[in-house]
Amino acid sequence: MFATFLVGLREGLEAALVVSILVAYLVKSDQRRYLPHVWIGAAAAVLISIGAGAALNYGSAYLSLAGQERFEAITSLLAVAFVTWMIFWMRVAARKIGGDLRDRLTGAIAIGPIAVTAIAFLAVIREGLETALILYAMIDFAENPAASLGAAGGGIAAAAAIGVGLYHGAVRVNLTRFFTWTGALLILVAAGMLKYAVHDFQEAGDLPGLNTIAFDISATLTPGTWYAELLTGMFNLTAAPTMLECAAWAAYVVPVLVLFLLPRRQSRPQSASRSEPAPAEIQ
User: Where exactly are the structural domains of the chain?
Assistant: First the structure.
């Protein structure tokens, strides 16, 4: 549940920040008449994302057992790719996302209301489709899918509340630190999804080594205990993983985590007139 809550919070906050930037720009530039178009675009993106999640869930039910294993493995791999891309993209683009969105919105206003709606839709749909795919891959191996889905909804609701608070100045969040810590945790979550994908391919017969166990900690990782549920749900830690699962987990988590935590190279200081706002600012 904590893992899906984290995904909902992280993706929801990114979407909330995007919408807040668009709304704040329209308000400050005295273009309030376009606010309904922003909300229409954002709402359409949310509805389509929910529909995409439902299609993934119900569409896989018509596959054979081996087909379901392969489908779940492929969606897990896609989710890993999206998580990895998301955390590195936000790490690089956080300081210029506000300026980019305002430039696009200025051009959209010159075209008309439909263009403004499209800007809001495209800005939110990316986060929504990512969330749908990642949550499908995570909830698929959850012991209590309903609770995991509810936790994700709670994360999205919390993100919306934080976004409103940031917009009104009632909440101060160091977004750089927030995205760094959540990014590191999501790398571990993604490693668990990759491990799950390998196991699914092994069960489908596409990869060898299903019975080659790396270690067995069943006596320590007792099913039903709070710590077992936490480790299983958060990192997909299983009591008796295969050698190939462990190799895939290590091959992903070590280089990706190291690259993510490496200090970023500082760019040349720009003049005050051209500098971008910090990620925690909404202008």
Answer: 2-261
- The DSSP secondary structure of 169-195, one letter per residue, reads TS----HHHHHHHHHHHHHHHHHHHHH
Helix (H, G, I), strand (E, B) or coil at 242: strand
Mean pLDDT of 13-40: 90
**Position 34, amino acid:** Y
pLDDT above 60 (res 279): no
Q: Are 119 and 210 in contact (CB under 8 A)?
A: no
| 3-class state of residue 84 by DSSP | helix
Tens digit of each residue's pLDDT (9 = 90 or more) over 197-223: 999 999 888 999 999 999 888 878 776
Instruction: Give the helix ranges, DSSP H, for 29-64.
Output: 35-59
Residue pair 16/8 in contact (Cβ under 8 Å)? The answer is no
Structure tokens at 183: 């990014």
d(CA 145, CA 68): 17
pLDDT at residue 137, rounded to an integer? 83
Report the SS3 class of residue 209. coil
